[in-house]
Amino acid sequence: MLSCEHASGEIPDEFGDLGMTEEHLTECARGKDQGAADLFDYLVRELDCLGVRNGISRLVIDANRYEDQDELIPTRWGGKEIPGNIGLSDAERMRRIELYYRPYHQALVDSLLKCETLHGKVFFFAIHAMAEQFEGQVREMDFALIANRGRELAPFLEERLRTSGYTAAINQPYHLERDILRVSVGSELERFNETAVLIEMNERCRADDRAKEALLNAIRGTVEANYP
Ligand SMILES: [Zn+2]
Q1: Residue 59 C-alpha to ligand 1 middle, in angstroms?
Q2: Which residues 6+ apart lie within 8 Å of 125 measured at CB?
Q3: pTM, whole model, 2 decimals?
């Protein structure tokens, strides 16, 4: 199963432009991972697998954060404030969570359970794209494989990408303190994290069809090598 948390730059009308200038919105691509939605659509089609794609911009609420994380509703981006997200009441935070965050996570869980019923074992890949340069740091790798409990799976992806001529780094340029599927600690749903990897494609690869094909083959090969 595939997911795409940062597929969309959609900001619901009720938020206007979140008080941001047109320039600022363009700079941050309205909160979209550039190229991630296309990559996700391609992979879901070619793998013929289940996929859940988020339709809300991370500028409104970030599906790739836990509900209790500070950056869940970001107050800054690229060094500039997001005025519409500053000084929110607890009630407004909760309203956003219920309206624009929880339905997506429920859809993820529903899809994972469906996949498990169909196939017995589930492999879960969250598809993202990262900027080549971020806060003065250059990301050299073509792909970043972020894995916590799924760290046994990540080397399979890494090896296959390398064989196709692409570089991949595991738990770089960042790592997650908690895990990919955001469920409460001790929940039975945590089992899905044991075979979950978050994949970041470097934005410089977004027009490279061979890179997308290499990832497709890496996912396919990883699942085939680990399916009981
Ligand atoms: Zn992302």
Answers
A1: 12
A2: 1, 2, 3, 43, 196, 197, 198, 199, 219
A3: 0.96
Coil/strand/helix, residue 129? strand
169 near 151, Cβ under 8 Å? no
DSSP 186: T
Identify the burial level of 68 via C-beta atoms within 10 angstroms of its C-beta, where 0-12 means exposed, 13-18 middle and 19 or more buried: exposed
> What single-letter DSSP state applies at residue 180?
S
**DSSP letter string, 11-36:** --GGGTTTT--HHHHHHTGGG--TTH
Q: Tokens for 147?
A: 């894995």
- CA of 6 from ligand 1 middle (Å) equals 5
CATH of segment(s) 2-226? 3.40.630.40
Residue type, position 153, single letter:
L
226 CA distance to ligand 1 centroid (A)? 26
CA distance 177 to 191: 17
% the chain with pLDDT above 70: 100
Mean pLDDT of all residues in the chain?
96
Percent of the chain predicted with pLDDT > 90:
93
